[in-house]
Fold:
Amino acid sequence: MPWPRPVRWRGRSCGRWSWASPSGVVQALVRREHVTRLLAGDSLRALAAATGLGAASSSCSYAAVALARALFRRGASFASAMAFEIASTNLVIELGLILALLMGWQFTLAEFIGGPIMIVLVALFFRLWMRGKLVDAARAQAEKGVAGSMEGRAAMDMSVQGEGGFWARLFSIKGLDAVAAYCVMDWAAVWRDVAGGLLIAGAIDAWVPKEWLQAFFFEGNDILAALWGPIVGPVVSLLSFVCSVGNVPLAAVLWNRGISFGGVASFIFADLIVLPIIFIYGKYYGTKAALRITGTFSLAMVLAGYAVELLFAVTGLTPGAGMLKMMGGSPSQHAAGED
Structure:
């Protein structure tokens, strides 16, 4: 395919004037055939490689799902492809920064502790429930190349070919332009998700009575709240249609409305089981595999939420309830200077 035109940003070539994300560097300079060779099995080494590469190759949820299928079709194991998918949406710098800014460092730490726990659990569950004929059928369906969303992004390979080491390719004209292209695509996807998340979070904050949500989340009963939160978090996420970093504003609203700390964590983890993505799983891998993926992910998210809840409670790191003043109360209250 012809080389993409340089990406211009405010009249300059973004690559040549060099503001670039680590994601753009990885996607432009690490060749995909090398990635799939690393991800060919479901060993700890393959899962660790998938997690590291996914975290570096940050994507919106739809792009992550499409990229995971592309890796699966090129020889990655199903478990490694899913680990890559989870890491590329839950263990990324953008998400950590937005969590820290909107909610606090404890939520960022919870995300980066719970994410690897979820990946390990998914890999273990896949060994039990996602193997043999089911994986063969999923691969056969994946090979059909049925369109879901963001296929253009997944199929786009702007990796820099040719001779030379990493630094030579990075600072070449093609290298800088490719990094810039990925950089702009990553941030465009991020801000689209954030805008959607802010819209839904604002609607819930304004229209759903606070008392209803507090009762639903068992606020005031620490034991019931801790047990219920990680279970209901993925359910709320599934029905919200918000994914990737876009669910952070809604997570802040839910936290101020009484959901437990582990519930917030499991809600954020659940960006890969929103209804539109479940339908895409069906197109990519078949209905049976889609249901198995959804069930496995959901169970792993709930257990990771419990792990976060317990770990932070034992260490005393759980933030105090109602600490997010910026997301609580109505706009009129903020204008009047009320809490």
Notes: The radius of gyration is 20 Å.
